């Protein structure tokens, strides 16, 4: 694909988009910054030494087409993706532009996977959810599943100390208003967030927590390359927060299905602010993995842990480095790909090594 720019970033003036642009510049990529607001794009361009910019809006198809025609790879940071993402994917496929985004939204990822055949026909790679929350879990599951002939189940549990941006808060609210699914016995099952709860003991400093099920997008990506018949994602909360969530989530879902959703949305505002770098750098996480299946001819149960810091920083670096790989002339993958299908899981972990990423397998049985 002969293109004017190697990489373009849609939503470049948002919180995550700015981090992605900085990461690309640090890699020596003079990326094209795209977004709705010309004034904000001009400010960002000056901050980054004069990077080129383009006004593009998901509600104006011709601007998405122009952006896709000019770039070999498009990184989409404009969410909520369930509302805004599909036209961007369509433009990328139509104009032979590889696509990558930073979503964590299950409904969007499931819908985009339906475009696999058309993406293959156009020889375009579509990689949704290449961000902290999904890419690390997807790649960790792939590593843990190596050598398994059959995979009965994979469970992923997140524990985080995390300061969310305004965009992330709006996305969470939007997700609570959407249908959510679990993956059981090889099929999708409609299931409300928080339906499954269990006590877990995590290593220090996390300690005893309540794991609450939630509809993460890794539930859509992991089965594509592990052939797991059951996949669940959990958020590990202190007992008091888990009890509060059990009461609040059903009420919120009811309110979001009513006209009150407009009031709730207005309370969050439309800004793009997020945590300061010094605060963001101190945010930490743990991802616990458990797999059950058949390995080396016998039933096995194994676990692993992944720890690190700065989820937003990791997201920016993962997206930037992945896009650099995809922009190379030798890149020849196509279709809608999970992160672990698009890239070697070990390479994804190496991309995030600067954030104190540590992968540890635990004793199994």
Describe this structure in words.
The protein has 365 residues and is of the alpha/beta class. The chain has helices at residues 15-26, 38-47, 61-70, 81-84, 86-94, 106-113, 116-121, 132-144, 166-176, 218-226, 239-256, 260-268, 277-280, 311-326, 339-342, 345-351; strands at residues 5-10, 32-35, 53-55, 71-76, 98-101, 125-127, 148-161, 181-184, 187-190, 197-202, 207-213, 231-237, 284-295, 298-309, 335-336, 358-362. The longest helix is centred in the last third of the chain and has 18 residues, at 239-256. It is globular.
Features:
365 residues; 16 strands; alpha/beta; 16 helices; globular; 7-stranded mixed β-sheet
What's the short version?
The chain has 16 helices and 16 strands. It is an alpha/beta fold and 365 residues long.
Layout of helices and strands:
Blueprint: E1 5-10, H1 15-26, E2 32-35, H2 38-47, E3 53-55, H3 61-70, E4 71-76, H4 81-84, H5 86-94, E5 98-101, H6 106-113, H7 116-121, E6 125-127, H8 132-144, E7 148-161, H9 166-176, E8 181-184, E9 187-190, E10 197-202, E11 207-213, H10 218-226, E12 231-237, H11 239-256, H12 260-268, H13 277-280, E13 284-295, E14 298-309, H14 311-326, E15 335-336, H15 339-342, H16 345-351, E16 358-362
Parallel strand pairs: 1-2, 1-4, 2-3, 4-5, 5-6, 6-15, 7-12
Antiparallel strand pairs: 7-13, 8-9, 10-11, 11-12, 13-14, 14-16
Helix pairs in contact: 1-14, 3-5, 8-10, 8-16
């Amino acid at each position: 694909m002969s293109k004017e720019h190697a990489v373009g970033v849609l939503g470049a003036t948002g919180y995550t988009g700015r981090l992605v642009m900085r990461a690309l510049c640090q890699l020596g990529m003079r990326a094209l910054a795209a977004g709705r607001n010309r004034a904000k794009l001009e400010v960002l361009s000056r901050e980054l030494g004069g990077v080129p910019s383009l006004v593009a809006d998901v509600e104006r198809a011709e601007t998405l087409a122009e952006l896709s025609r000019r770039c070999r790879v498009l990184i989409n940071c404009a969410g909520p993706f369930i509302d805004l993402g599909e036209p961007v994917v369509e433009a990328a496929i139509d104009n032979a532009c590889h696509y990558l985004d930073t979503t964590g939204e299950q409904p969007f990822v499931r819908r985009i996977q339906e475009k696999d055949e058309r993406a293959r026909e156009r020889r375009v790679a579509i990689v949704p959810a290449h961000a902290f929350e999904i890419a690390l879990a997807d790649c960790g599951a792939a590593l843990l599943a190596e050598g398994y002939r059959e995979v009965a189940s994979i469970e992923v549990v997140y524990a985080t100390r995390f300061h969310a941006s305004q965009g992330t808060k709006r996305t969470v609210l939007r997700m609570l208003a959407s249908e959510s699914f679990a993956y059981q016995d090889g099929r999708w099952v409609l299931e409300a967030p928080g339906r499954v709860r269990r006590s877990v003991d995590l290593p220090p400093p996390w300690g005893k927590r309540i794991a609450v099920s939630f509809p993460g997008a890794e539930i859509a990506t992991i089965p594509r390359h592990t052939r797991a018949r059951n996949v669940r994602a959990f958020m590990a909360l202190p007992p008091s927060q888990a009890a509060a969530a059990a009461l609040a989530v059903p009420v919120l879902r009811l309110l979001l299905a009513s006209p009150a959703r407009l009031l709730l949305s207005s309370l969050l505002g439309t800004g793009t602010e997020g945590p300061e770098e010094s605060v963001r750098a101190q945010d930490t996480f743990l991802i616990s993995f458990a797999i059950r299946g058949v390995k080396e001819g016998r039933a096995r149960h194994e676990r692993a842990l992944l720890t690190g810091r700065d989820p937003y920083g990791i997201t920016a670096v993962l997206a930037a480095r992945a896009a650099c790989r995809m922009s190379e002339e030798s890149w020849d993958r196509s279709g809608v790909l999970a992160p672990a299908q698009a890239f070697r899981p070990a390479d994804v972990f190496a991309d995030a090594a600067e954030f104190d990423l540590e992968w540890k397998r635990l004793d199994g049985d």
